[in-house]
């Protein structure tokens, strides 16, 4: 259907809403008519709901019985291309159309009634009474700089009633204003001179630029610091020169202050930003600007894929291997794969950038489906860090200590030279386990099949599954004996304690996502570290991601064996990627770097592969293993998660499905399970998992649909299908 399809008043239209009805409903076009794709308000029973004009009505219903569309919203219509993408993505991920619409529009702030579009931001006055609630509001505003919020959003973020905000507005401490109407974004200048590229970089950039204007996927692989960002910014420049829009997806967008500054330096203006830290008023503006073609470049988190770009020519997925691209709640999808799908609908180019690509992308490149460009050397004088294992069996470690004498020596050495050292431990909190020394009880979460993790800075026990926390009890919850609860094992906070003991004069920074109230606070700390404001940086996974710390020359991995436990077939790949990413933090500037991996099994093939640096050999071995097991990326896989308040019905449904596998057998698929899911209970809901494995070309979704349709799932039970699961 052509884009500019118009329905005159009284014509039958079908409208898709986000209500769980399953299919679009028929209405009559309103007075003044409406476009295909228009956002409209329609009556549904006694209510009014928002929907999208999805097509022509099917004529089956008596026109006299149809109700007219109530009004057309002042929002650019959803274009054909985006609707097709949502449909296709819904088929792939086995998601209903209403759920897809909800996913694509939920964070846009589009549907607020027009009257509520007043925004609230920091004012010049002072509140006459400084209450706790008022302070909370002012803190949210302060943490977000000059950003303006809608009333309900601000109240919710601050955890106060809207009246508190109104009160502040009266006093002048908060300013109330009409939302400025859709200011376009400043123009980026693609012709500003970029950095002078090295020969390797120049070749890579030219190859990417040659690919603009048509659909195609390129894996841009290069060690950390090789200049991948510089190179793909050239592809962005070329895209902009052709008058098309570009999207750069980042995994941890909240940490991208440095990245935005680089874009601004390259193009002379800031791009549009899209992530959870951006206010709804701003997101609403960006949504419209994307539709009108008035924003050239958007830097965003995975949901930026659903922005209604008018003329999208390029999608860059940076750190494409990152697991946070997989959305694990609601609609289960991998933004990297969906970026490729989206691009295929608008003749856009896709660049997947990584120092440690996913095996999926590596295999697609090896099979010739994706182009591949390698940047072999780090830019300029900087060299890749040397990597060595510290054999922990040969170190003398005191009890409740985790830093080996060898590593202590290396850290001291760096500090004495005025350089920085980083200690990496992928565990938040103080200690992963709290045990009662009297009865052996381990404190677990009341709602999850998970241990409570002590967070000493917060003085609480926290469940990392559901987020529930409680004060650390004086006595054991099981036997009641007091004073016998003991932390077992290290988390970053405990490591910080050891660091303080061993390096009493060093300035220490701890980077762990839970220690920062806001993204802004984290950004500030990162900037301080980059300036040299710390000697030792202790961090969890967040330090593995693209920060430039020029003085950092040593990375010590406290427990390189951590990720190798468990039966997940992806464990080797993940550990390999994480260790190489972390090590890549060292030696970014002129000073060479070293990475030291503490391990009790340095002869383990994965540890050896990490140390040897022979990546292709590692990928080939990993690929052979997966091929032999017929699992992704060489076979297809789906996870089926049954969850509900009681365990018994879940197994009943699972067993029933296991008895009726005819639709699966027809495509040669195999079923494993039902079995308790890797985390068998979360937020009070039990979880049972099944895995379905099929050959690469098999029509998996159709078979799954026919298979699950055979059983009736009661309301209390949720059946979720996870195509291409992260763990198997
Ligand atoms: P990657 O994305 O591969 O980690 P970057 O693009 O971030 O690499 O480059 C690493 C560092 O080297 C950055 O500080 C970048 O500005 C610098 N750099 C890379 N290429 C060049 C170049 N051609 N000229 C000047 N500086 C460069
Ligand atoms: Zn929990």
UniProtKB/TrEMBL annotation:
Which catalytic reaction applies to this protein?
ATP + H2O = ADP + phosphate + H(+); Couples ATP hydrolysis with the unwinding of duplex DNA by translocating in the 3'-5' direction
Which InterPro entries does this chain map to? DEAD/DEAH_box_helicase_dom, Helicase_ATP-bd, Helicase_C-like, P-loop_NTPase, PriA, PriA_3primeBD, PriA_3primeBD_sf, PriA_C
Binding residues for Zn(2+) 2, per the UniProt record? Answer: 445, 448, 463, 466
- State one Pfam family annotation: Helicase_C
Question: EC no.?
Answer: 5.6.2.4
Q: Which PANTHER family match?
A: PRIMOSOMAL PROTEIN N
What does this gene product do?
Answer: Initiates the restart of stalled replication forks, which reloads the replicative helicase on sites other than the origin of replication. Recognizes and binds to abandoned replication forks and remodels them to uncover a helicase loading site. Promotes assembly of the primosome at these replication forks.
Per the similarity annotation, which family is this?
Answer: Belongs to the helicase family. PriA subfamily.
Name by which UniProt lists this protein:
Replication restart protein PriA
């Amino acid at each position: 259907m052509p884009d500019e399809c118009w329905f005159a008043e009284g014509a039958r239209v079908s409208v898709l809403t986000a209500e769980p009805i399953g299919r679009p409903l028929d209405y009559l076009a309103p007075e003044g008519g409406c476009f295909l794709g228009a956002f409209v308000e329609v009556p549904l029973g006694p209510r009014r709901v928002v929907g999208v004009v999805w097509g022509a009505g099917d004529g089956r219903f008596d026109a006299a019985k149809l109700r007219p569309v109530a009004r057309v919203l002042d929002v650019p219509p959803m274009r054909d291309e985006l609707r097709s993408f949502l449909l296709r993505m819904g088929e792939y991920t086995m998601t209903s159309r209403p759920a897809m619409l909800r996913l694509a529009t939920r964070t846009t702030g589009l549907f607020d009634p027009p009257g509520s579009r007043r925004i609230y931001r920091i004012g010049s006055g002072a509140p006459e009474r400084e209450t706790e609630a008022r302070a909370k509001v002012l803190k949210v505003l302060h943490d977000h700089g000059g950003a303006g919020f809608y009333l309900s959003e601000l109240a919710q973020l601050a955890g106060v009633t809207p009246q508190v905000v109104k009160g502040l507005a009266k006093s002048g401490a908060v300013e109330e204003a009409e939302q400025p109407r859709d200011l376009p974004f400043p123009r980026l200048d693609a012709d500003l001179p970029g950095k002078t590229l090295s020969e390797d970089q120049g070749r890579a950039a030219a190859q990417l630029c040659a690919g603009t204007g048509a659909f195609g996927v390129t894996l841009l692989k290069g060690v950390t610091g090789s200049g991948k960002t510089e190179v793909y910014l050239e592809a962005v420049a070329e895209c902009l020169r052709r008058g098309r829009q570009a999207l750069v997806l980042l995994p941890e967008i909240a940490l991208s202050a440095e990245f935005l500054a680089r874009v601004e330096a390259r193009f002379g203006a800031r791009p549009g930003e899209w992530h959870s830290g951006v206010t709804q008023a701003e997101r609403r503006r960006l949504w419209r600007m994307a539709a009108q073609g008035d924003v050239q470049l958007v830097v965003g988190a995975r949901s930026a894929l659903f922005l209604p770009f008018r003329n999208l020519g390029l999608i860059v997925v940076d750190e494409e291997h990152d697991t946070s691209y997989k959305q694990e709640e609601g609609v289960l999808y991998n933004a990297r794969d969906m970026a490729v799908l989206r691009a295929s609908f608008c003749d856009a180019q896709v660049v997947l950038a990584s120092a440690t690509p996913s095996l999926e992308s590596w295999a697609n490149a090896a099979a010739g489906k994706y182009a591949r460009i390698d940047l072999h050397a780090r830019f300029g004088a900087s060299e890749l860090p040397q990597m060595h294992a510290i054999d922990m069996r040969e170190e003398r470690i005191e009890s409740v200590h985790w830093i080996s004498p060898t590593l202590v020596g290396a850290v001291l050495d760096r500090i004495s030279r005025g350089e920085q050292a980083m200690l990496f431990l992928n565990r938040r909190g103080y200690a992963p386990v709290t045990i009662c020394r009297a009865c052996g009880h381990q404190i677990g979460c009341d709602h999850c099949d998970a241990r409570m993790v002590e967070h000493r800075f917060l003085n609480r026990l926290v469940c990392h599954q559901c987020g529930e926390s409680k004060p650390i009890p004086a006595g054991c919850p099981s036997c009641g004996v007091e004073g016998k609860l003991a932390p077992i094992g290290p988390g970053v906070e405990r490591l910080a304690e050891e660091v303080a003991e061993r390096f009493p004069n060093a300035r220490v920074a701890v980077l762990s996502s839970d220690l920062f109230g806001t993204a802004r606070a984290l950004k500030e700390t990162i900037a301080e570290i980059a300036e040299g404001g710390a000697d030792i940086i202790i961090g969890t996974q967040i330090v593995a991601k693209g920060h430039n710390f020029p003085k950092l020359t040593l990375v010590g991995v406290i427990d390189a064996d951590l990720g190798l436990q468990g039966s997940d077939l992806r464990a080797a790949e993940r550990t390999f990627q994480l260790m190489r990413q972390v090590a890549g933090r060292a030696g970014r500037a002129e000073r060479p770097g070293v990475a030291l991996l503490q391990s009790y099994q340095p002869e383990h093939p994965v540890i050896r592969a990490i140390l040897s640096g022979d990546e292709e050999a590692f990928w080939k071995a990993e690929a052979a293993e997966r091929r032999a097991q017929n699992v992704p990326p060489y076979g297809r896989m789906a996870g089926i998660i049954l969850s509900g308040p009681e365990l018994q019905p879940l197994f009943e449904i699972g067993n029933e499905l296991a008895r009726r596998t005819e639709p699966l057998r027809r495509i040669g698929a195999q079923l494993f399970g039902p079995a308790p899911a890797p985390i068998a209970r979360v937020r009070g809901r039990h979880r049972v998992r099944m895995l379905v494995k099929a050959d690469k070309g098999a029509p998996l979704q159709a078979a799954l649909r026919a298979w699950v349709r055979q059983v009736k799932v009661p309301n209390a039970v949720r059946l979720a299908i996870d195509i291409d699961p992260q763990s198997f």
